[in-house]
Amino acid sequence: MFVRTLFALLLTVTLAVALVGCSVQPRLEGRAWSGDSDAINAYYQRWQGTPYRLGGTDERGLDCSAFVQNLYGEVFSQPLARTTLAQSEQGYRVLPAELEPGDLIFFKTGWKARHVGVYLGSNQFVHASTSVGVTRSSLSNDYWRDAFWQARRVR
User: Fold this and answer.
1) Fewer CB within 10 A of the end CB, N or C, for the chain?
2) In this model, does residue 17 exceed pLDDT 80?
3) Catalytic-labelled residue, pool 63, 100, 105, 115
């Protein structure tokens, strides 16, 4: 009788440990922390007006994905892919109504052309524009609203 009770207890404990070890942890949603918008804006102000240059990665000129990659590396100490297409596959999608400072926002600006920026808050985002270089724009602008493709959270 004692052996049977001990065996049942041991089996119960083993199963409980196995079930807890195999349980799925809830996904922790990335949340903006205070100061994100300020840090992004400070980074933007240092680069504001830097010309757009396809394939460029420095102060002589840079493209949109390089600006976003550099911003993420400096502001968030987080590496991002180099191209807009690769960046558009990182993290997970968020709805426009759920945007937080630091989220990546993507646009379809042509038949195969893609563009990326970083959400600043208050419907504003920063990016490297082909026409004016590093700038701040509004998602309320007809052009950007119509071209919006997706938003992603990578942290």
Assistant:
1) N
2) no
3) 115
Which domains can be identified in the chain, with CATH numbers?
A: 35-153 (3.90.1720.10)
| φ, ψ dihedrals at 124, nearest 5° | -110, 150
127 is catalytic: yes
Catalytic pick among 43, 50, 52, 64:
64
Tokens representing 125 are: 């985002």
Give the Cα separation of 19 and 23 in Å (integer): 6
Tokens 């911003």 map to which residue? 71
Q: What are the structure tokens assigned to 152, written together?
A: 């992603």
Torsion angle of the four alpha carbons 57, 103, 148, 53, in this order, in degrees rounded to the nearest 10: -10
pLDDT at residue 141, rounded to an integer:
97
Known catalytic residue at 22: no
Q: pTM for this one? A: 0.78
The answer to whether 102 and 151 are in contact (CB under 8 A) is no
- Give, as one character, the DSSP assignment of residue 52: B
| From 127, 133, 134, 144, the catalytic residue | 127
Of 24, 47, 25, the residue nearest 118 (C-alpha): 47
Catalytic annotation present for 36: no
Residues, the chain, total?
155
Question: Is the distance from CB of 99 to CB of 153 less than 8 angstroms?
Answer: no
